[in-house]
Amino acid sequence: MKLGVVRFPGSCDELDALRACRLVGDAELLWHRDRDLRGVDAVVIPGGFSYGDYLRAGAIARFAPVMGAVGEFARSGGLVLGICNGFQVLCEAGLLPGALLPNLSLRFVCRQVDLVVERADTPFTRACDPGEVLSIPVKHTTGRYYAPERILDELEANGQVLLRYAEGQNPNGSLRDIAGVANERKNVFGLMPHPEHAVDPLTGSTDGARIFESIAAHVEALRRGPLAAAGGSASAVVGRGAA
Amino acid sequence: MSGGLTSSPHRELGLTDREYERIVARLGREPNGLELAVFSLMWSEHCAYKHSKKLLRRLPTEGARVVMGPGENAGAVDVGDGLVAAFKVESHNHPSAVEPFQGAATGVGGILRDVFAIGARPIAILDSLRFGELDSARSRYLLAGAVSGIGHYGNSIGVATVGGEIYFEGPYEQNCLVNAMCLGLARRDRMVRSAAAGPGNLLVLLGALTGRDGIGGASILASAELGEDGAAKRPSVQIGDPFEEKKLLECSLELVDAGLLVALQDLGAAGLSSSSSEMASKGGVGLDIDVSKVPLREPGLEPFEIMISESQERMLCVVEPAKLDAVLEVCSRWEVRATPIGSVTDTRRLRVFDGGELVGDMPVEALVDDCPLYDLEPARPAAPVYPDPPRRLADDAPADVALRALLRAPSVASKLWAFEQYDSLVGSRTVRRPQQADAAVLQLAPDGGRGALAVSIDGNGRRVACDPYTGAVEAVLECARNLACVGAEPLGLTNCLNFGNPEKPHIAWQLEQAVEGMADACRALGVAVVGGNVSLYNESGGGPIYPTPVVGMVGALPDPALAAPAGFVEEGHRIALVGPFAPDLAGSELEKLRGRLATGLPQVDLEAQAAALAFVREAVRGGAVASAHDVAEGGLAVALAECCIAGGVGARVDLAPLAERGPERALFGEGPGGVIVSGPPEAIDELARIAGAVPFLRLGEVGGDALEIDVGAATLSLRVDEARSLYEGGLPDLLQ
Amino acid sequence: MRARVLIRPKEGILDPQGQAVERALPALGFDGVANVHVGRMVELDVDDVSRVGEMCERLLANPLIEEYEILVVER
Is ipTM strictly over 0.90? Predict the structure, then answer.
């Protein structure tokens, strides 16, 4: 299994994401000007300030050559994970619904938060238990999730809200405490918290590893056949806790 | 060539008549406008350290671990496994007083460039900030702007901001201090120096376009007091572009890694003038620069403006002609502008051309080495230099009232409000985040090393104002104590000396005393000073700032998992006070709240301090203690409260043995040398047994939901949740 | 031709920057201020001003959260 981590000029967390990916499989960096995804099984769009976040967070990165390939990859069912700036890019690119607005505090916030797993039957959360609480840090200025009410209702109805900030811990004013959403097909997932910063017991928590383990388990299951992939059963989990 | 100069242009540019005569003598003729502009900057306090260089020679700069000492872009120490830690602290005080957001942001940008200029990847930023009291709207504005600017630059470029300190004192009202420290890591065999070499090699300018930023800024801003006519002297504010610097950083490191560069240097104060002449001086060569080749942001810059522009996010490198194409290719990949603007010569002269025309011709040695150095004329002040701070607490306020007031005093209270605005995590190295432990701890595993680095930055200017020698000793000791609390051994030190006008005898005295104190403390601890920065003339109508030597220290520890947190960990753990701590109210935070400054602080026994630091360090490394936290502002009562707040658990302690000179002294007295440790009973028993000559006093036990302190005659009790809300609300409440 | 694009948060979208300004103005003695919104401005020289709307839709603004107004400032 191989994961690709996109590197834009201005990406900051791409090496952290690469290390987190390598805990569950092979991983390499994908350069923003390349259109070739090099046969990866899943793509991670990392955090940072792609193209300086000038104009609007993620607005310019979505037009990078690599994003054309990522779009096709996603439309063909490939797994795409967007973390923080990556989430913003995926929203700007229209691969995910909604938008990210400046935090209510108008300040950058770096803080460990608790996240509630709303759905554990997706490629990105299958290593979690439903209702499980993950401790993962956030760090952003533009993380307030917004979508019109009608779309929010749809997201909830379709089970596209995968992670929510635990009660009282919403760090940015996101509507309905939404921390991470998937597309309808559940193969594209964006979240503001940084799972790649929560994979090492020395640096805080290992809960973020679940996200990467989920992706690995899903890719492995796909290899064994579509039935196993759809099951999302615990048997596909490659490991818990510190990797 | 004109620079709009009047009849005595050298005076306007900050040069004395004697200095001007010396320039004429060195050139053998009158300088033209461009040459005068370049000389005025190279001979400014900022570049030439003319009032501090002699004094700085008293600092110890050698040690077994030192790889690069003062004089390079950053100091560097060996951390094993083929890695070196490079670090430096630098001030950006005046620009921050003019525009705090951009001033602080470009301060961070500048110190980052110093570190990656030697081929080191920046891995951590720390900041030491000083503002006036927060009842002033201006201080609140400066604080909010500076913190936001630091975060903006550091967060955007992806370097973790892992620590720092903020103090609020009246004398910083007009002259805030923004000192930024950067720590980087390099492979020892991949470091690059700044010495230009190889006549015929090319000089290539990397990065941002050159505009009219900070023209004359370095000499006029950094060497003159911000007086009544400060507004007129305000330069155009320099705007930081962290995105440009991020590309420049990655590009520079790739160039270094690929071995494509002969030399690399950042452009800081005095821009091209300073970077080119420093590179030429170190290499014993000359440089020819064609300013018409420099890419400009706006048309019509004169040659002298191009030479002294302080536009941000630029680097200068020396490249062998055969490697130029490879260099340009890397730069193009990173979308970094790269322009050959000149070449290395064997003339030992800095020659400036505007196309075919020679517009400046100066001996490199004259620019870099010939600035006259001045002796200070120190005199101990006969009368107090500073007014007493405003009185905020009655002398007879009961101890519990005093403790509450101290916990929410802005200099003592939690700085989480600021730290949360910084990305402290990027890089996956941060084992101890801000306020989790006394020093930040960064693991080396992601970089192929073992163990971890610890880093801390300290300097309580008010105590230095009370006693410049002892205050500076204490700043070094506090930094070392913070490292000891996480089990780290100091490897090297960087400093930033923020003082008033050194031409005034009482300021010269403060400076001399502080450097002496710092030197003595460094020798006692065996720590070398590997670099630093001096910021003088921090004065305004309100008088000088408190003398503020800021100390940044980097240490190493073998096992990051054992780095002790500051907070108590478990009910039933025993608490002890380790070290030669002799609490005294002189210069304490309590005395400040009561509206008093002290003259003189108790002497410090450096040998006993060093022994205690080694003992604490070994105790932490051996895993004997579960927590360690040093006693600083607010004394033992505040330190114990901080241990309780951080751990979310109470404690019962008995300070009666320390109360023979009054309960107040025991509770709130300050002084160097005290560390509060906690651990399982048997571990604390064992430490007590082996403490030997190191003072070791059992204080009590962790447990309950309140801090209960017995001081003999009196007892004091404060619930942990109340303590937390005072401590964590102190800063935000004042900023509402 | 010089065009000026004014971009602001769509009506109904929470605008904390606007609110912060709205709160700050009375503190400075400016009473009677309401409905403050903070946006941004993009100025550009274009050959064909009729294409600026498309530029807004695709890049300059995010139509989900922002509205925009195109002014031709110089012909």
Answer: yes
